[in-house]
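Before a computer can learn anything about folding, someone has to put a protein's shape into writing. The three-dimensional part falls to structure tokens, numbers that each stand for a local backbone shape. The protein below has been through that process, and both of its lines are reproduced in full.
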Amino acid sequence: MTTVLVFDIETIPDVAGLRRLGDFPASMADADVAQQVMQLRLDKTGSDFLPLYLQRIVAISCVIRRTTKEGLPQIKVGSLGNSDDSEKVLIQAFFDLIEKYTPQLVSWNGSGFDLPVLHYRALINQVHAPRYWEMGESQDSDSRDFKWNNYISRYHMRHLDLMDLLAKFNGRANAPLDALAKLCGFPGKLGMDGSQVWPAYQDGKIADIRRYCETDVVNTYLMYCRYQLLRGGVTQAEHDEELDFVKRYLEQEAKEPNGQAWQEYLAGFAGDA
């Protein structure tokens, strides 16, 4: 089985970048800098959401689903690095996973948000990611495969943006993950949404942000399982078995310290509450 790597990021305004690009007094608080720029953005565009290159990554969460050398199924849900790690450490850890596994990348709106942000922030932070950027230029057989199927091209499958694909690459047809997951009987978002990340970060709730991001990647993995059923990649029995496998894993995680979020998440499955 190909290693599947589902990913999601959470971001906040890049205040250091805003200071570098603008003329702000050193005494001005970070929150005030961000608020001023966001207000200007709102007045100009109708949205206070900053450009992608000014989004600083504070969490990257992943589901890694693979088969061990012994043929045993293995799944891991978590956030990369530690709560106090730098942005560079988090981004490098993400691309190191790609370097190690050459996985099937799966996201929800990864092409429209997560990956462009990762590109810009990796560039700023001097991150090394040769496997991810492989486009088939060299002559070895492994590299040549990337000419026809790589992580960068929109219509290639090494990165599967489920939102983009299900909408048939039509932005007007995009569906929100939370709503579609709930319609499929999955729990959906838990604890917060993206608009609450910056206030939560200012309150020092980085652990809550990481937990929220982790529930999002599980939602995305469950949607990937449903997509595999849709396209005939798995049978109904295999789909149901995989969902049970995920639930059993989360039940074990729910018993760990700070596992209450997974208890709440498990209660959100349709018919399981």
In short: Residues 206-231 form the longest helix (26 residues). The mean pLDDT is 94.
